[in-house]
Design a protein that fits this description.
By secondary structure, the chain is mainly alpha-helical. It is 68% helix and 0% strand. Helix 1 packs parallel to helix 3 and helix 3 packs antiparallel against helix 4. The two termini are 30 Å apart. 31% of the residues are buried.
């Protein structure tokens, strides 16, 4: 149990450092800013309690907010993703999955994992960008920003998952 907490804490710290130092300063084409901190919630096992998911999601978002000065937007977005993560994982996980099933490219296959990550990243980016914008004045640019940031973050999350498990075979 304590090794899980240590690994999750190390993953949290590395994702926060990567997000704050690299991705928050990277604005591709002027409107793509991927939030790879969402990967933190993608790799929890299936038997993780909702309270635990909510606490880890809120803590991840709060740490991002403290270092990025975003006034609770990441905490609210990550908490929402933590709230729906179990239902989304149930949609894409195999029916005969064990209780300790961990969603990854290896266990779900590349296509299902990509859709799983894309759905959660879209919710994360939609919430974050709409809280940041608080306006429907330029909705087309906002929708382009949500879609492109979600797709970029999903691709990055899939690549992180592949590179953190290099010895596995992918379907």
């Amino acid at each position: 149990m304590s090794s899980n907490i240590i690994m999750r804490t190390l993953r949290l710290l590395s994702l926060i450092i990567l997000q704050v130092l690299v991705f928050n300063n990277m604005h591709l084409f002027g409107f793509i800013t991927p939030l790879v901190i969402g990967y933190m919630l993608l790799c929890f096992s299936h038997d993780t309690t909702r309270v635990s998911l909510l606490l880890w999601g809120f803590a991840t978002g709060l740490l991002h907010d403290m270092f990025a000065n975003t006034a609770g937007m990441a905490a609210a977005s990550m908490t929402l993703v933590a709230m729906i993560r179990t239902q989304v994982a149930d949609m894409f996980s195999p029916r005969d999955a064990a209780e300790d099933f961990v969603p990854s490219v290896t266990t779900m296959g590349l296509g299902k994992y990509f859709l799983y990550a894309l759905l959660l990243m879209t919710v994360l980016h939609t919430t974050y960008i709409m809280l940041n914008t608080l306006s429907f004045a330029n909705i087309s640019l906002t929708l382009i920003s949500i879609g492109s940031s979600s797709l970029t973050a999903t691709i990055l999350c899939v690549l992180i998952d592949i590179f953190t498990h290099p010895s596995r075979q992918y379907r």
